[in-house]
Design goal:
Elements lengths: L2 H49 L14 E9 L8 E6 L9 H5 L7 E5 L4 E8 L8 H8 L12 E4 L2 H6 L10 E8 L2 E8 L8 E8 L3 E9 L7 E8 L20 E3 L7 E6 L19 E2 L3 E9 L1 H16 L14 E2 L3 E15 L3
């Protein structure tokens, strides 16, 4: 073996040893990486389990408040009597079965409504106390589903029943302000509301949106010049269902039903509303889809003027309802126009009515 071959052999041996050393180092690094990864996983597991702790939160005792829901309205031709419902608010985790809700009604209160000239003392009227032949008529008058009469006893404060039948009672009039006073459990609550001047719609129509048969109710209106006007939209279908009954028992306000003239003062504009749903739910017939009217529907629109207090209440009330308890929703306290510490709303409505047919 010459010198060159010896040098080559020595170089190859060094290269092999270096290669083996590198392999060994790589293997050791791999072991350490695996070990470190296992240690890291173990650390995370311990961290997760160590964070688990049962926390008992003592919820403060809830103090119920009186809730006043009252309305008086006029169409300019006929006026409706005041209707006031008194209940107690309940804690978030309270039971919400029918019996619990029934017990929320407040009885034996003194309720009066005055218009500046006349003062009317309202009487409590519970539907279960009425004759079976009269109860459905009263339920229809107050916009209550007749099917609910057998399972739920509605109690409202309104003008005396005899006066209600005769028509000789306090009625809503456009342009008047009405003061409500409620005395209950030693406390007095007051509120005022106005029935604003009527603003009828210029026209109403139906436009198809999807499936060539489903669409929205459209309207055109002209807002009177002068900011501060506010409105609320209601509608109901009087088309008969498969059982020969109207599809909607009462007027329903869809989401976003209230708006004001902040951006439309003194102008004419078009707008649309979808089909609202009653609080108790509604089963669609074949071919119907939630939020849409269907070709063949006959729709009565109730378009109302409201004062700013009613608008602010309804706007934030609908925000709360739409949030559905979401923790990511923006917090919004629902205002009230009732003084004395009660919750709720005393609302005046100036109502006009239009009928539209869902046709292409």
């Amino acid at each position: 073996m010459n010198a060159f071959q010896k040098m080559t052999k020595t170089k190859n041996n060094l290269t092999n040893r270096e290669s083996n050393a590198n392999a060994l180092i790589g293997f050791i690094r791999t072991l350490f990486a695996i070990r470190e990864r296992k240690l890291l996983y173990t650390f995370f597991l311990f961290a997760l389990f160590s964070c688990e702790k049962e926390i008992n939160i003592k919820i403060p005792e809830y103090e119920p408040k009186l809730v006043i829901e009252g309305v008086i309205e006029s169409s300019g031709v006929t006026g409706a009597p005041p209707i006031v419902i008194l209940t107690k608010s309940s804690a978030y985790f309270e039971e919400t079965d029918l019996n619990a809700i029934q017990n929320l009604f407040v009885h034996d209160a003194i309720v009066t409504v005055e218009d500046g000239n006349t003062t009317s003392t309202l009487e409590e009227l519970c539907l279960n106390d009425l004759d079976s032949t009269i109860a459905p008529l009263v339920a229809s008058y107050f916009g209550i589903n007749e099917q609910d009469l057998s399972t739920f006893n509605y109690c409202v404060y309104t003008v005396p029943f005899v006066d209600l039948i005769s028509g000789n009672h306090l009625k809503g009039e456009v342009g008047k302000t009405y003061k409500l006073t409620v005395e209950s459990e030693g406390n007095t609550y007051t509120a005022s509301t106005e029935i604003p001047q009527l603003v009828p719609l210029d026209s109403v129509w139906f436009e198809v949106q999807i499936q060539d048969t489903l669409g929205f109710a459209w309207a055109r209106m002209t807002d009177p010049t002068g900011r501060g006007n506010a409105y609320r939209w209601f509608a109901k279908r009087i088309t008969l269902d498969a059982n020969g009954e109207p599809k909607d028992d009462n007027f329903i306000a869809p989401f976003g039903s209230a708006f004001n003239d902040e951006f439309v003062d003194g102008v004419s504009f078009d707008f649309a509303y979808d089909r609202g749903h009653p609080p108790t739910g509604h089963e669609n017939e074949p071919g119907e889809v939630d939020h849409y009217y269907k070709i063949g529907d006959t729709i009565v629109v109730k378009f109302t003027t409201i004062d700013n207090d009613v608008y602010e209440y309804m706007r934030l009330y609908e925000v709360q309802i739409n949030s559905n308890g979401s923790p990511f929703a923006s917090p919004a306290n629902v205002p009230t126009n009732i003084e004395g510490g009660a919750l709720g709303l005393w609302a005046g409505y100036g109502a006009t009515y239009d009928t539209l047919f869902a046709v292409k």
